[in-house]
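Task 17 of the worksheet. Students: predict the tertiary structure of the chain below and write it out as structure tokens. Keep your answer in the requested format; marks are given for formatting as well as content.
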Amino acid sequence: MKSSIKSIIVLVGICTVMTVLLALVNSITAPIIQENQNAAANAALLEVMPEGKNFEQVDISAYELPATVTQAHKEEGGGFVIQLTTTGYGSDFVIICGVRADGTISGAKCLSSTETLGKEKTYGENFTDKNAEQVAAVETISGATKTTQAYKNAVNDAINAAIILAGGSVDIRTEEEILADNLAAALPAGEGKFTKLFIVEVIEGIDAVYTADNGKGSVCVVGETFVGIDETGKALTDDTALAAKLEAQMQIITASEQTPVDLTAYEGIHKNIVSVSKTATGNYVLEVKGAGYGITGGDEYHPASGEYIFIRVSMTPQGKIIDTLTVSQKETDNIGSVCADEKFYGQFDGKTQADYDSVEGISGATLTTKGYKQAILRCFEAVAILEGGVANEE
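Model answer:
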């Protein structure tokens, strides 16, 4: 019994001594380890902001920042180093970016990525010493459009985050969010759900019309002005002249009717023209299918997707495009699929056969662009035939 008690006392003594020794070692090594960790962290910060001193981590939870921002450090000169996580072809594309107090970029670097990086690995070097306006002008890399655009967007988010962290204000809403907010403000009865109206009549002074999905009216866009039109057709604005103009134009739009055209009665209309209808004012609405990625010649669908790009075009009898819409497509995500972005297809509005080919193509999607433009050409040719002319031969 005494032997057992003695063994326990000895064991407890040994444990106590070990605990004391470990505590002593930890008290000596912990500051060294922390110092080394800080040095490593500062090294990463200094890599994108070499002139930075005395970095201090910022509690970003206290600010409304772009969603890509995951960490932020402030340096004594008023600059910030922002870490961001975005998405290129893969997820978890981590970028670190230094923003000086004057708003210029001190450096940017990709810390990690799940995708294979080529030239885009050093893409951050393009942003050094540039301000927000100059960042917007940095070109993406052909063949790596999605990755480098994500990089570019992250750098822009870093600039906006630095402004906010420094006490300034900046609108960090996306273009889609800004549009949605403007539409909702112009017509609250629309309950925030709108669809862009495809225009088939020539209207003056209106850039776009969005109809409320619940049928409670529309919103006319005139430059940067959004004006609601209630379900009775009344413009919701105190500007009487503008109200009268918009109400008159909306009457033209809502009164428009279309009659199907029998394409079998005409020779020479290309097989990719799916259907045509004609308005009472003589305008044409054409549904056409265009080639996608991987096609040479432009008249067959992409074998990988089995899908054409379906396009809707409205056109005057004289061959001037009124409106364009990509109805459906299955091109490569964030490359050829940009053909479904109004920033692309909207470029054709107002064009004629003489100048439609001047529309800026989709970066990294030459064949998609070619197929789309060829489909537009088919529409010009079809209208020429329907109006009694002869289509141009290639």
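Marker's comment: The helical segments are 2-48, 132-136, 145-165, 175-186, 240-255, 342-345, 366-386. Residues 295-299 have pLDDT under 50 and may be disordered.
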